[in-house]
Write a structure and sequence with these properties.
Trna Endonuclease, Chain: A, domain 1, single chain, about 140 residues
Amino acid sequence: MKNISEKRIADVLICHLRQNASVVRELKHYENRIDIVSMDPATNEINTYEAKISNWTKALSQAIVNLTAGEKAYIAIYDKFIHRVQKERLIEYGIGLLSVGSSWGQVSIIMEAQQSPFVNHQMTEWVRQNYFGFNKG
């Protein structure tokens, strides 16, 4: 198996997301950074993504924090390690799961995320305005 980086996983995911959404990388959120944030232009929905090669538990911890920053939160794991993810743990928090390969276009939705009950609407509105140039009105 060839070496792969988190950056490559994120790049493949960003390329996929940009087909249907606006995307920002490395958004500051509290003392951390969210790997990827997207906004669907049709719905203005904000989604967050944490990309990891194999450490799905770290991605889950980060995604739980991200539940306040977006309507939905996902973890994206390299496809060679997707079998290690304990899906029940993600279901418990409503976190979605994406499988990401090393080549462009290799992104599969394994589990859809649920609407976050913890979303901070002031935060998502701030993200829409400051990162995606969206203003209501």
